[in-house]
Every structure is written in C-alpha cells, then in structure tokens.
Amino acid sequence: MTDTRTDTADAPLDGQVASLSTKTVAHVIHYRRKTYVTRPAEGYALLKRVRTLLRDGTTDLVPLVHRDGFVWLAVGPSIPIAIDQIETDAGHSEEHTLKRLGLD
Fold first, then answer.
1. What is the pLDDT of residues 30-57, one digit of tens each?
2. How far is residue 80 from each of residues 6, 10, 34, 93, 98, measured CA to CA in Å?
3. What is the DSSP letter of 24?
4. What is the rounded CA–CA span in Å between residue 24 and residue 98?
5. With 0-12 CB in 10 A as exposed, 13-18 as middle and 19+ as buried, what is 76?
6. What is the pTM of this model?
7. What confidence tens digit (pLDDT) does each residue in 58-85 have?
8. For residue 56, which phi and psi values (nearest 5 degrees)?
C-alpha cells in the first residue's frame, strides 16, 4: 500500500491548520436586561446547568460568578436567557481579548 498524500501548495500545513482554530476565552450571559461576562469555566458550568433545567422543564436558582462579582439567576423554561461564547479576536492574542472584556 502506498501513501497517496502529497505536499503541494494547495494542501494546508499543520501550522496553518493550528492557527485557524479558535479558543473560547469567555462567555457572555444575557439575562433579563443585564449582561454578565464570565471566564470559560464558569460559563460552561452555567451552560450545563441551564441545559439540564430546560430539558427537565424545572426552574431553579443557579449561581454565577462573573467579572463584577456573584449573582443568583432564576433559570427555567419561561425565563429568557442567552449565553454567547466569545472567541479570540482575529489577529489578536487571548490576552488582548480578555483585556477588552475586562477579564484581565
């Protein structure tokens, strides 16, 4: 069996592929007329809990640690909430994005 891969100008190099990947550096939670910015660990924990509550159709208080402190959010099927993932800015470092979001 022969290797059919060729290294041509059309084939991306491993370094180019790695540079195309993005990394989630923060989560932005839109809840009732407020916006909270969190680090990924807190954002993923909230997202997991919200998914469970919505799947079960129940309402509960969920803790959220954000850049300005701590808050309890009532989460349930009839309470609107949106969670956005923030990735690194194109052409900028992770530190630049965190500083822009106030998480430095």
1. 999 999 999 888 889 999 999 999 999 9
2. 51, 46, 12, 33, 26
3. E
4. 11
5. middle
6. 0.69
7. 999 999 998 889 999 999 999 999 999 9
8. -80, -15
Using alpha carbons only, what angle is made at residue 95 by residues 24 and 90, rounded to the nearest 5 degrees? 60
How many residues are given for the chain?
A: 104
How would you class 71 by CB atoms within 10 Å of its CB: exposed for 0-12, middle for 13-18, buried for 19 or more?
middle
Burial profile 55-67: b = 16 or more Cβ within 10 angstroms, e = fewer: eeeeeeebebbbe
For residue 44, give the H/E element and its range.
Answer: helix 40-56
Cα angle, residue 88 at apex, residues 68 and 96 outer, rounded to 5°: 65
Is residue 37 within 8 A of residue 22, CB to CB? The reply is no
Alpha carbon distance, N-terminus to C-terminus of the chain: 53
d(CA 36, CA 45): 14
